[in-house]
Predict the 3D structure of the following.
Amino acid sequence: MAGHSKWANIKHRKGRQDAKRGKIFSVLIRELTVASKLGGPEPDDNPRLRTAVDKALSANMNKDTIERAIQRGAGGLEGENLEEVSFEGYGPGGIAIMVESMTDNNNRTVAEVRHAFTKSGGNLGTNGSVSYLFEKKGLINASSGQDTDEIMEISIEAGAEDIEVNEDDSVNITSSPEDFEAIKVSLKENGIEISDSEISLVPETTIQADLETSLKVYKLLEMLEDLDDTQSVTSNIEFAEGMIDELD
């Protein structure tokens, strides 16, 4: 099955986040807290929380920190009253951008997101102006060094929509949110190591940008990702070749 450029977009975002350990930890703690608040504190009964715990452990977060975040969400500890909010807008070149945040002060978060768009030559849109261009998907990456044929067979039987084998023989698996957990379980039961997994917004189609637009959008994505309340940022851009050289 052919892969899609959504993986390049997601890897770009994740690479930046993972490079900032403090930021990624705060993102994970907020996700643990909200997942526990919405679905209960037991990972076995709460798929969203189970995924959040897996990601936290993969990021080497200690178990005490994970447990405190879960208890805070379940009401066992005092903490911020967080709510999930999404923002939609357009960046330079008409690139569509979705920002998912968790905040205890919506007015502050709106002001910060709007400022980032305005400063970068974009504009914050209204609800529905951009979201129709994206859809939720389950995204799983199976580590390299494993039997790719077996991974593909297991994933397809469990409901995978799309599979991409990378140059390093790691495997990208895309699914509906509904089949995401079943695929993860099937892979783990068959001894397949998963390096990363999440349910994320992905663009239904992408826009190929020239170098100038790519650099402008990249800077906007950086600004949005660096905001304290941001959980994730997704766009429908395909960056121009050679952009990384310009950034170095």
Remarks:
- DSSP finds nine helices and ten strands in the chain.
